[in-house]
């Protein structure tokens, strides 16, 4: 059998070369086209009051100077800020065509409906702010594996959050999902979020026992849920990183652990409106950074003069 050589005609190499050098330019032009589609979508949904996106000018060759748009050195779109832009209607269903998009801020509008499956394909996203809208339905953003910050505060989300974890965990630093209607239990949920520092689950319908790793966070806020159970005496270890801890308005019971004294950076502790009983742990007196302490409406006996100031 003779050895056959595969021969490419010269024009093949020229074509390949052209694809390589124009690849960037083609992608940048695609970003511009997608933003013009986004503009058209927003204008159709918002015929009267419009935000700064109305000034995105179709005759500009690059979108990188348009209000709210951020680009990288290759003129690819990396950020879209449409906060406070009077937007009604649902989320634009083609954000995933912007393959370099890392920051998306749609906060403080009147955006409704569920999160489209498209958004879950924006795997480069690092910062996603959907706060203060009327977005509903369950949360399914398990495809956003590069998230650093997710803010869903003040929307109408419901159901369990579990299917998103640990998928979105690897880089997650800040998760704020307060003032929604999320439910279900959160035990183990954030175990594989090694970088998590801020967790705000306040004003939802979460129930069951609390997530046990919370002493590694800087801030935990779970006020106004239906969490219950006792905190074990070993809840707060010597490496406790907590600065703000708000467990108020839940159904926690038992004695509050004296190991809270290990949380030497604590500035604010709110245990109000629970069913804690027993003595107020004297260790609280050794927390030198503490400037806000709320213990009201529990079953605790308040022991005076344990503080040595
Ligand atoms: C999200 O947007 C709201 C309103 O614009 C802002 O107050 C909030 O700080 C943003 N969230 C984060 C984590 O930056
Ligand atoms: C949600 O919490 C983060 C972290 O504490 C904070 O930066 C952000 O401003 C909060 N979002 C809103 C809408 O207040």
Automatic annotation (TrEMBL):
Looking at the record's lineage, which domain of life comes first?
Answer: Eukaryota
Q: Which residue range or ranges hold the Leucine-rich repeat-containing N-terminal plant-type domain?
A: 29-72
UniProt keywords (A-Z) are: Leucine-rich repeat, Membrane, Repeat, Signal
Cellular component, GO, one term: membrane
Question: Is Membrane one of the keywords?
Answer: yes
Subcellular location per the Swiss-Prot or TrEMBL entry: Membrane
From the Swiss-Prot or TrEMBL record, give the protein name: Leucine-rich repeat-containing N-terminal plant-type domain-containing protein
């Amino acid at each position: 059998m003779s050895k056959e050589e595969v021969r490419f005609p010269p024009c093949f190499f020229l074509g390949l070369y052209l694809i390589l050098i124009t690849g960037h330019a083609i992608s940048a032009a695609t970003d511009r086209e997608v933003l013009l589609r986004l503009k058209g979508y927003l204008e159709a949904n918002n015929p009267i009051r419009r935000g700064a996106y109305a000034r995105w000018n179709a005759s500009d060759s690059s979108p990188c100077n348009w209000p709210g748009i951020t680009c990288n050195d290759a003129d690819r779109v990396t950020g879209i800020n449409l906060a406070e832009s009077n937007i009604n209607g649902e989320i634009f269903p083609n954000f995933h065509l912007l393959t370099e998009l890392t920051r998306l801020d749609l906060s403080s509008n009147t955006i409704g409906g569920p999160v489209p499956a498209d958004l879950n394909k924006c795997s480069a996203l690092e910062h996603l702010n959907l706060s203060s809208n009327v977005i509903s339905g369950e949360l399914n953003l398990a495809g956003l594996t590069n998230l650093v910050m997710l803010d869903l505060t003040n929307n109408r989300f419901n159901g369990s959050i579990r299917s998103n974890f640990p998928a979105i965990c690897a880089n997650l630093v800040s998760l704020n999902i307060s003032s929604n209607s999320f439910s279900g239990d959160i035990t183990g949920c954030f175990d594989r979020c090694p970088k998590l520092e801020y967790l705000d689950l306040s004003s939802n319908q979460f129930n069951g026992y609390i997530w046990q790793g919370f002493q590694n966070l800087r801030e935990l806020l779970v006020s106004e849920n239906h969490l219950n159970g006792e905190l074990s005496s070993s809840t707060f270890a010597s490496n406790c990183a907590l600065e703000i801890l708000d467990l108020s308005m839940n159904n926690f019971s038992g004695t509050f652990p004296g190991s809270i004294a290990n949380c030497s950076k604590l500035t604010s502790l709110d245990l109000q409106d629970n069913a804690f009983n027993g003595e107020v742990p004297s260790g609280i007196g050794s927390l030198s950074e503490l400037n806000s302490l709320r213990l009201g409406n529990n079953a605790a006996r308040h022991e005076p003069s344990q503080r040595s100031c």
